[in-house]
Design goal:
It contains four helices and eleven strands; from the N terminus they run αβββββαβααβββββ. The chain is mainly beta and about 230 residues long. It has a single domain, classed as Electron Transport, Fmn-binding Protein, Chain A (Pnp Oxidase, Chain A). The longest helix is centred in the middle third of the chain and has 7 residues. The N and C termini lie far apart (about 55 Å).
Length: about 230
């Protein structure tokens, strides 16, 4: 059998592990990846926060899971980066509410209960950031201006930015959900994974508040939102 020559380490790295800094063209290369744009909203007590996110993807149908990646230093990551109560810390494995119970039934957090709804007046209640819950709206091409508003750094106030936009409050997450998107999801964080300068969230989908029968998606490509037609 022919012996393979030893593999060469990539430029800029060592045998100990990958390079600590990104290659010079990495950000530019990633901008060439066309991605759908979503709006993540969170109810935090009497506050409502939102941020534009393109690092979103489905993970599993059974159980229903999605992935959202947030800038680790952002306020949304701060809100969702802590496990409620005595749950696992960021980076730990799935917590008690992540899957089925040993008997094959559902765990206590698997379905809505009368206490799950947030107070429509202030976004409070068991839903929201305190419970690791949030909403995701898959934005339509016509919502480019909305995506631009929520792309601002800091604490984009969802209540103010959606004041003139038809919207609803998710009964399970307490988060504000704009109408007019391609679909909306209410989610609950089941695992937190620190990943470089981002925080990756694996979240269980609790409900689908609405799904549009048709429409074009909002796409981000090379820092812009190009029209598909």
């Amino acid at each position: 059998m022919t012996e393979r020559p030893p593999a060469l380490a990539p430029a800029g790295s060592s045998r100990a592990g990958p390079a600590a800094t990104a290659p010079p063209d990495f950000a530019g290369a990633l901008s060439a990846y066309a991605a759908g744009v979503t709006l993540v909203t969170i109810a935090d007590g009497r506050d409502d926060i939102g941020t534009t996110v393109s690092a979103f993807c489905p993970v599993s149908l059974e159980p229903p899971l999605v992935l959202v990646s947030l800038l680790a230093t952002s306020y949304p990551a701060e809100l969702l980066g802590t496990s409620p109560g005595d749950g696992p810390s960021p980076g730990d494995g799935p917590g008690p509410g992540d899957g089925a119970s040993p008997a094959g039934g559902t765990s206590p957090g698997d379905g809505p209960s009368p206490a799950d709804g947030a107070d429509p007046a202030d976004g409070g209640g068991p839903g929201g950031a305190a419970a690791g819950r949030f909403a995701v709206c898959l934005l339509a091409a016509s919502q480019r201006m909305l995506a631009g508003r929520f792309a601002a750094a800091g604490r984009p106030n969802a209540r103010r930015m959606l004041a003139e936009v038809p919207h609803r409050r998710g009964p399970l997450s307490g988060a504000l959900i704009p109408d007019g998107g391609l679909a909306a999801l209410e989610c609950e964080v089941s695992r937190r994974i620190p990943a470089g300068d981002h925080l990756v969230l694996i979240a269980r989908v609790l409900a689908v508040p609405y799904q549009a029968p048709s429409g074009d998606p909002l796409i981000r490509f090379r820092g812009r939102y190009p029209a598909l037609r």
